[in-house]
Amino acid sequence: MKTWNVMLVDHDRLFSAALATLIGGGPFRVSAHAASADDALDVIAEGSEPDLIVLALQDGMPEEIAGIRRLREGTSARIAVLADTIADRSLSQSLKAGADAYLNKSMSSESLLRSLRLVMLGEVVYPTHVAGLLMSAVNERPHSPAPIAVPPSSDLSKREVQILRCLLAGQSNKAIARNLHITESTVKMHFKNVMRKINAQNRTQAAVWAIQNGLSPLVTA
After folding, report:
1. Residue ranges of the HTH luxR-type domain (predicted)?
2. How many structural domains are present in the chain?
3. Is 53 in the same domain as 87?
4. What are 124-152's pLDDT values in tens digits?
5. How confident is the model at residue 212 (pLDDT cuts 50, 70, 90)?
6. 201 burial via Cβ count (<10 Å: 0-12, 13-18, 19+)
């Protein structure tokens, strides 16, 4: 069975210990702890190579979001944010900073483990209403730098647009394949083409692009 090394980042040692006990079985092995994002980068610089970083977000302040960004730049590990509450602004900012998941501390242990497995399989995990939150975040950034030029949605095929709309609905590749009556390998091929056309590096960037270009979630084909 595949085992993933996990680093926990939280200033609360008691919560960190409890979380380590919770997820330290099955495919996950907690191999390192850090009190902050900068401490985590120091540990990584010393030779630790986590596959997954679970970072406890306190209040979504700018310095915490900046910490996620530094982690994204300093490691190839997957990053899951564990927040006290699902706050609109910190959710969207965390994803834009490079987090691969935004999860609620109040979720069940089964849901947490399932979400972390999805993250390690390459999925971006977030609440289903993230599309609306991402749109709000875009509207809240009047002074942000101009985005990289991307082709209009008319340059995408009908199927590629459907793929993006399914992505906004939070569907996995398997669910997209089922809804569109195609194979998972075909879904992956379409995703590859879409990413190239819109100059996106990951599914989160693709979701942001889709929202900015007026696409809406597609639950069923």
Report:
1. 149-214
2. 2
3. yes
4. 777 655 545 454 444 444 333 333 334 44
5. low
6. exposed
Check: pTM over 0.90? Answer yes or no: no
CA angle 206, 127, 185 (to 5 degrees): 45
Note whether 82 and 120 are same-domain residues: yes
Please check whether residues 168 and 59 belong to one and the same domain: no
Q: Which two tokens stand for residue 134?
A: 């991402």
**Distance in angstroms (rounded) separating the CA atoms of residues 206 and 202:** 6
Q: Which DSSP string do the residues of 57-115 spell out, in sequence order?
A: ESS--HHHHHHHHHHHHH--SEEEEEESS--HHHHHHHHHHT-SEEEETTS-HHHHHHH
Residue 180's domain comprises 153-212
How far is CA 151 from each of CA 186, 192, 194, 200, rounded to the nearest angstrom? 22, 15, 11, 11
What is the spatial order of strands in the sheet that 52-57 belongs to? 28-34, 4-9, 52-57, 78-83, 101-104
